[in-house]
Amino acid sequence: MPKSFRFLLLALLAALALGIAACGGDDDDGGGGSSDTASKDQGKSIKAGVVTDIGGLNDRSFNFLANKGLEDAEGDLGVEGRVLISKSNGDYVPNLTTLAQQQYDLSISVGFLMGEATATVAGKFPNNDFAIIDFPASGLKGKPQNVEGLLFKEQEAGYLAGYLAGLWAKDNNATTVSTVGGQKIPPVDHYIAGYQAGAKAAFPGVKTLNAYSQDFVDQAKCKEIALDQIAQGSKVVFQVAGQCGLGALDAAKEKGVQGIGVDADQAYLGDHILTSALKKVDVAVFDAIKRSQDGKFKGGTDVIATVENGGVGLGQIGPAGTKYESQIGDIQDKIAAGEIPDIPDTVAK
User: Fold this and answer.
1) What is the largest CA-CA distance in the chain?
2) pTM of this structure
């Protein structure tokens, strides 16, 4: 083979090698490399679990939203998720323990009633991370440092709902509005106290009724309470009782009065829904999982959702309330700006 031809052949081979290397580099940056980068941007692959309270996933509000947050994290963050449904209080500890034993990076307890169980299991598994909705981390027994509290200023959403109820009541010669609570626990009372304050701010002469079903599941119990309140003159019924509260809204529809949903937007139930007091549990769950994935989980602290940061607010306003949208928008802006301070969060009775 002539020397000049060998040099030409070597040059061609070298050029070909450089071309292959360049193509490989492009694949790393725009193909496999971009996938790796995206994975790092999303955070490490983790396992996240949700344990419901006894309301179950069909409550169309609280537990439903927590599960939605988990499903969103599975789809958007690529985490491995699992939901365990508690049918009784006795399921809380076993369900949380199951997730911990299966090395879930983050286990989320859905609700104030799970405080004791969460503290117990978190204490037994100090290397696992936990989060609990509606219970402050500092309030847990033993103050475990591997639990993050996911809290909401429900009183702000309640105030907005109450203000709308008051405006409507004043214009419609209605003297009474009411609330049907599940159990007398802080997140429920936050809503009720805010609602009562908002209603009286909009209509100082309005009367407020309140009662508790002691149940978050049995719709018949809440319907009975709501029917009694309507018989006493209530023209707007705010349910704060999860799945049980759907019965209260059914009573409102049956008797031709206004109903207000809770946690999720319950406008789908019909035109009798004046609005819903929103509590974005799905966003709180998603964000907690994202923090865990990104290594930003902070046990022993609380993350608080407010009107200002968009974590609580109002859902769709129904036909009877649309004329008040501008006024409600102004009140919402004032709450966000701190111009309506000290909204009450406790109920006297």
Assistant:
1) 110
2) 0.86
